Every structure is written in structure tokens, then in C-alpha cells.
Amino acid sequence: MFAHMRIARPVTDLELACRMYCEALELRKIADFTDHDGFSGVMVGHHSVPWHIEFTLCHHHPVKPAATAEDLLVLYYPDADEWAARCEAMRKAGFVEVISFNPYWDVSGKSWQDNDGYRVVLQNRAWVTD
């Protein structure tokens, strides 16, 4: 089984994406690179989770972000106070609250969209598997 997961997304503004996700989700910049074979990027994560997000910018052939309403990063916050605090942090960081394309996500959560159209769902429930 793999030991770590990276979610890679092209963005239009590296600094803005880094700031928004770090402020809203209590992440921090864990790595970055500049003009590596025509790409620059920044990675954000948290020491307590086995995943991170990489934002990239192509300098020679710009890649336009092409997120859809169902391309979601879903995060679970079972504690109601922590969930409410994260929702407020999302708003303050510049995310816009949106109605989910799939109404399931609005039952126990809220959906947020960043400046590139990527969506983050904050669920106020625990992740439980069978």
C-alpha cells in the first residue's frame, strides 16, 4: 500500500492558492520549486495527515484549471465547533460558499470554491467505514 498521497492541481496564482488553503485549512507550505523544466509549484500539507496538495504553474504552455462541480476535496470534521471554525476560516481566506452539485454534500456539510473553481467540501461528521 502507498505511504503518501499528493493531489496535484494547476492554478493561475501560486501565492494566492497557497495562502488560501493554508489560512483556511491550517496547512503550511512544506515545499516549493521554481522553473523546474518550465514548471513552478508549491506544496501544502500538515504533519498529521498522509497527503498534501501541490499547486503548479506551467510557464511555457499555461494550463487553465478545468475543475468541475464534482471534482471535490472532501474533509471531515466531526466536532461541530471545529467544523464551524473551519467554515469561517474558509470564508475569511477568500473561498466562496456554493451549493453542491450533488445535494448529499449539503446535508451535513458546506461546499466552498476557490478562485480557480476547485471545490472543497467540509463535512460535519466522522468518516466511518464498514
TrEMBL record:
InterPro entries: Glyas_Bleomycin-R_OHBP_Dase (IPR029068), VOC_core (IPR037523), YycE-like_C (IPR058997), YycE-like_N (IPR058998). It comes from the Bacteria. Residues 1-125 form the VOC domain. Gene3D superfamilies: 2,3-Dihydroxybiphenyl 1,2-Dioxygenase, domain 1 (3.10.180.10). This is VOC family protein. It comes from Kosakonia quasisacchari.
